[in-house]
Amino acid sequence: MRKNRTELIWVGIALAIVSGCKTQPETVYVDLDRVAITASNVLHATAAPVPPKGQTASTATLPGAPGRDFLLDSRPQLDRAQGLIDQDLKQARRGLVRQYTIERNADIDELHQKQLRSLKPLADQLREQVGLEIRAKFEAYARVRGPKLSRLTALQAIIPRDRLSEDARRDAVELANLKGEIAKLDAAYVQERLTLQAKVQTGVDVALTKIQTDISLLRVQANDEAAVAAEKQLADTKVSLPAPQSVRVQLSPLPARQTVIPGAPGPSAPPKISGSLRSDDVKTQRDLATEQAQIWAGTSGYRLQSTPGGVRDATAEFVQWIKDRKAGH
User: Fold this and answer.
1) What is the average per-residue pLDDT within 274-299?
2) What is this structure's pTM?
3) Which of 50, 58, 47 lies closest to 266 in space, CA to CA?
């Protein structure tokens, strides 16, 4: 639409130039605002709406249907219902087992902590007992080692004075033997002491292992008891479904038949659009009138003036020209 308007403007300008070369054009005034408002029906003619057509009466044939014989069985519905019930019971059983297990494990955890606290008195008792045993071992060890150490000390004081005599050589052999015997006594005592000290940790470890084993057995027993308790509680919630039934249904055949479809009047024609224009529509009409006025002036040998003073008012002539164009003259 915009392209056509532009071409029309250029045609009008070209015609105006050609006309101007031949004779001096007459200056006229066209009231474009009045043309845009009063001649809107001429500028944009709208065809009258065509009322829609109605529907005439007619006949139609409805096809028949053969008879049917089928069996209604309630077993599938009962199976689905039983499946839902079993699923609900399974979920309820898991919930009850979880609840009972949590409650029982709380008691077991309390017992576990109490037994762990009892390990400290046990360790103290074992350390006291082992301390007494180590003291007894040490006293026996000291009674044997003391005389040997005294003799060793005496020989070490004698031998350096006369190393070549027969007595000196004999004392040297005795000295060496004493050193070996004392070393064996020391090693044996250290080993017995370490063994006795390990009895404390061993006793605690044995007691701890027994506690852990007992607690594990209690947890397994709690799980079993929770399952039994859940089953016992759910025993009273069993749902009994009715026995499945089968019913045979027979449908008679349906013959074909004709029916009359009544006619219907057509809907009312849409209302005719009013010729009144909004302000933005008036502006659009004025732009269109301005373009056509340029063409009309160029083809009629006129020159347009924007103000009405001092020139002929050719508004009516311009409107008639528009009407002639719409009529195809």
Assistant:
1) 74
2) 0.37
3) 50
